[in-house]
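Go through this one:
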Amino acid sequence: MATYKKRGSKPKNKEEGKKFDVHESTTAEVFSTLDQSASRTEEWVAKNQNYILGVIGVIAVGVLGYLAYNQFVQKPKEADATNELLYPQRYFEQALNNGTAKDSLFMIALDGADGKYGFLDIINEYSGTKASNLANYSAGMAYLNMQKYQEAIDHLEDFSSDDAILGPLAKGGIGDAFMQLGQPEDALGYYEKALNLSKNQYTTPKFLHKAGLTALKLKQKEKALQYFQRIKDEYSASDEARSIDAFIGMARSSN
C-alpha cells in the first residue's frame, strides 16, 4: 500500500531550514536592538526628567506670559493709544485745511493741549503700538509743513507701513525734506523708493513726476525722460499727465 508525505510538514531540504533560521535570528536581533534603544531612552529620560520638565515649564510660562501680555497689557494699551490719537489728529486735519493758522494748529497736534496728548506724547508713551507708528507719520508731515525738515525726516523714517498710499507718501515726504535741505541726490533716492513701493493712480505718477524733475536738476536726462514717459504711457489719466509732453520735451532737448 502506497504512503504519502504531508505537504509542509518539514523543510524540503537543509537549505530551506537554514534560511528560516537566519530570518528568525535577524528578527530577534532587530527586536533586541529596539529593546536596548528603548531601555537607553528610558534611562536618559529618567536621568534628565528634571531638565525636561524645566524646559517644558519655561515654554509653557512663555506662551502663557505672551497670551496674558497680549490680552491684558497690549490690547488695552492699543485701545488707549488709539483713543488718545483722535485729539491731535483732529487738529492736524484742521491745519491742512487752514492757510492762516496752520502752524499753531500743527503745534497743538504735535504737543497737545488742555491735558490732551499730542503726537509726540503718544510716540513716547505708547511706543510699539499702531497708534504710535501712525503718530510718527503725522508728526513727520506736520514738521514738513512747518519747514522743520530734519525733524520731518526723523519721524517719517520711524514710520513703517505696508499701506499702498501711506507708505509711498512717507518716503516721498522724506524726499521733499531732502530737496528743501539742498540734497537732491538723497531726495531722488527717496522718490524712487516711493514710486516703487506700490503702483497706483495717485502716488506713482506723483513721485514719477518728482523723480523726473529731480533727475533733470541732477542732469540725469535719460532717467528723467524715462520717468516722464512712464507717466504718459501708464498714467495718462493722472493730473501729472496733463502737461507731461512739455517735460518730455525738456528732457529730450537737454540731451
Summary: The two ends are 120 Å apart (CA to CA). The longest helix spans residues 49-96. Residues 81-160 form one domain.
